[in-house]
Amino acid sequence: MLKCRKCPTASSLMEFLLLVFRDTQELQLLHFWFFLGIYLAALLGNGLVITTIACDQHLHTPMYFFLLNLSVLNLGCISTTVPKSMASSLWDTWAISYAGCAAQVFLYFFSATAEFSCLTIMAYDRYVSICKPLHYGTLLGSRACVHMAAAAWATGFLNAVLHTANTFSLPLCKGNALDQFFCELLQILKLSCSDSYLREFGLLLVCISVTLISFVFIVVSYVQIFRAVLRIPSEQGRHKAFSTCLPHLLVVSLFVSTGTYTYLKPPSISSPSLNLVVSILYSVVPPAVNPLIYSMRNQELKDALRKLMAGWFSKAINCSSSAHH
Predict the structure, then answer these.
(1) To 10 degrees, the CA torsion angle through 242, 244, 250, 253?
(2) Sign of CA dihedral 46, 50, 56, 58
(3) What are the pLDDT digits (tens) for 91-134?
(4) What is the pLDDT of residue 5?
(5) How far apart are CA 63 and CA 68, in angstroms?
(6) How far is CA 17 from the centre of its chain?
(7) Contact 206, 155 (CB under 8 A)
(8) Mean pLDDT of 272-276
(9) Which candidate, 174, 22, 194, places its Cα nearest to that of 96?
C-alpha cells in the first residue's frame, strides 16, 4: 500500500486543470457554441416553465409545484458546470481554483440529488392522483407538498456536504489535471494517492444504492399507474393520464441510466471520449430537454404558456402604441 505522509491534501492545491477540450482550437470553438446553444435552451425552457407555473393560477397544483422545483434545480445543475466550461474554451484558460472546484462538486451533487428526490416525489404524486384520487387532497395537501419539497432539497444538501467534505480531505499525489470539462468527483478520486479514496467509493455505492431503490419505487409506482390507466373507460382520460406520466418516466430513465453507467462502468470500457459523451448526457442534456419533454405532451402547460405569451405580446403592442401617441 502506498504511504502518503508527504502527499498533499486537496486543500493544499491552489488549482485544478480541466483538460478535456485543450488539444485543438477547433474543438474548443465547437464545444463553446454547442454548450452555448444547450445552455440558452435550458435557460429559456426552464425559465418559461417556472414563469408559466408561477403566473397561472390553474397550475397551482402539487404536480406543477414539483415541476417548478425541478425546473429551478435544472437551472442550478447546468449553471454549475456549463458557464465555466464555456469561459475556459473561449479564453483558453483551463485552470479552476480549489474553492471553485469544491463549489462545483458541492453544487452539482446538491442539484442532482435534490432533482432525483423531486422526480421520486413526482412519481408518488402521479401514483396518488391516478390510483388513489379520493385521497389526493389529504395525502398531497399544500403543507405536505412543501414538506416533501423541503425534504428533497435537504437531502441534496446533506449528500453534497458528505461527498464534498470527504473528497476534498483526501491526500492527492497524482497531479492536478482532470480529464473532464468540470470537477467530476471520479476524476478527483483518480488523483488520490492512498486507500482513503475507498471511503468515498463507499459513500458513492450507498448513494447509488439509494438511487436504484428510488428508481425501483418509481417503476413499481408506474406499473400500478399503467394498470389503473388501462382500466379507464374513456380514451380521452387514458390519453391525459399517459401525457402526464410518460414524460416523467422518460426523464427519470435518462437521468438514472447515464448516471449509473458513469459510476458503475467497468474500467475496461472506459475512455476519455466515452466519459465525455456520457458526462454530457447526464449533466448537461437533461436540464435542457426536460422542459421540452414535459411540455410536449402536456396540454395544460402548453395552453397556459400560449396564454402567457399572448398576454406579453398584447402588453408589448399596447406599450408600443402608447409610445407613438
Answers:
(1) -100
(2) positive
(3) 878 889 989 999 999 999 999 999 999 989 998 998 998 888 88
(4) 44
(5) 9
(6) 24
(7) no
(8) 78
(9) 22
Return the sign of the alpha-carbon dihedral for residues 265, 267, 271, 272. positive
Per residue in 8-25, pLDDT (tens digit) is 555 556 788 887 666 667
Q: Long-range contacts: 174-179, Cβ < 8 Å, 24+?
A: 176/13, 176/15, 176/16, 176/17, 177/16, 177/17, 177/19, 178/16, 178/17, 178/18, 178/19, 178/20, 179/19, 179/20, 179/272, 179/275
Residue 261: CB partners within 8 Å, gap ≥ 6? 278
Tell me the pTM: 0.85
Q: Cα–Cα distance between 303 and 319 in angstroms, integer?
A: 24
Q: Of 294, 251, 249, 261, which Cα lies nearest the Cα of 68? A: 294
Coil/strand/helix, residue 200: helix
DSSP 7: P
Under 8 Å between Cβ of 208 and 112: no
Q: Which helix (H) or strand (E) holds 16?
A: strand 15-18
Number of Cβ within 10 Å of residue 5's Cβ equals 6
Q: How far apart are CA 49 and CA 80, in angstroms?
A: 20
CA pair distance 216, 177, nearest whole angstrom: 37
CA 53 remoteness from chain centre: 19
> Which cell goes with 121?
416525489
Band of residue 325 on the pLDDT scale cut at 50, 70, 90: low
Residues in the chain: 325
Q: Report yes or no: 288 and 45 within 8 Å, Cβ to Cβ.
A: yes
Q: Which helix (H) or strand (E) holds 230?
A: helix 197-230
